[in-house]
């Protein structure tokens, strides 16, 4: 019984299903794929190719590139000081509640 994945493309319309796991960089891959394709055209089998990365693949290191994550405070305390003069009394806030300014 074959569990088909949503990304599978089954080649062929009749015969047993063969799932091929591999990578295109393998030197034997083109010939093997060609043989499977010819067998699927003749109705001997159906096949699905699923890519698998090479286990010994090394990561590429790029010099000169970096990533910086800067977190900054996004809540701002805003005080409207456009109409204040130096002679007016300052307002004291208590318990995080804004008190009305005395007239």
UniProtKB/TrEMBL annotation:
It comes from uncultured Debaryomyces. GO terms for biological process: ERAD pathway; protein N-linked glycosylation via asparagine. This is CAZy families GT24 protein. One of its GO terms (molecular function) is unfolded protein binding. InterPro entries: UDP-g_GGtrans (IPR009448), UGGT_TRXL_1 (IPR040693). Residues 6-59 form the UGGT thioredoxin-like domain. GO terms for cellular component: endoplasmic reticulum.
């Amino acid at each position: 019984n074959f569990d088909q994945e949503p990304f599978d493309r089954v080649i062929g319309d009749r015969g047993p299903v063969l799932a091929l796991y591999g990578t295109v960089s393998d030197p034997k891959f083109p010939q093997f794929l060609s043989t499977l394709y010819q067998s699927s055209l003749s109705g001997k089998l159906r096949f699905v190719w699923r890519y698998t990365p090479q286990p010994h693949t090394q990561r590429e290191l790029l010099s000169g590139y970096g990533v910086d994550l800067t977190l900054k405070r996004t809540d701002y305390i805003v005080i409207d000081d456009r109409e204040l003069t130096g002679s007016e009394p300052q307002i004291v806030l208590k318990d995080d509640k804004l008190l009305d300014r005395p007239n």
